[in-house]
Amino acid sequence: MATAAYAAGGIAGANPDRVGWLAMRIGLVAFIVPYMFVFGPALVMVGTPIQVCIAMVTATIGCIVLAFATEGFILRRLYWYERVLCFIASLLLLHPRPLTDFPGIVLVVLLVMIQYYQRVASKRVKPTVKGL
Questions:
Q1: pLDDT confidence of residue 83
Q2: What's the pLDDT score for residue 131?
Q3: Among 73, 22, 27, CA closest to 14
Q4: Where are the domains of the chain?
């Protein structure tokens, strides 16, 4: 597994285990995409134009959210439970069914809103009293 990554880690003088895990995280989406074609024929343009568009949009968002989960960052570092929620949302979006798309979109929107509001709250400057 990840023979090329181990070889590259050895050549570069880096830890081959870390390089292998990084290669696995980066390549995870490329590994899952062919399975998406099996479960969702709309991704290979089989179906009505509306079905194809919805499948393409949700699959793209699902791939992006899977990258968020594997990298552990959206607008700030993700806590472990946010990573788990990102992974669940990505699986819901990658399975092209309307029944799974809606909960996946809701989870993604909630996670991004939480990230945004926590980022905004952390940048607010608290007033200080001078002279004390």
A1: 93
A2: 58
A3: 22
A4: 3-121
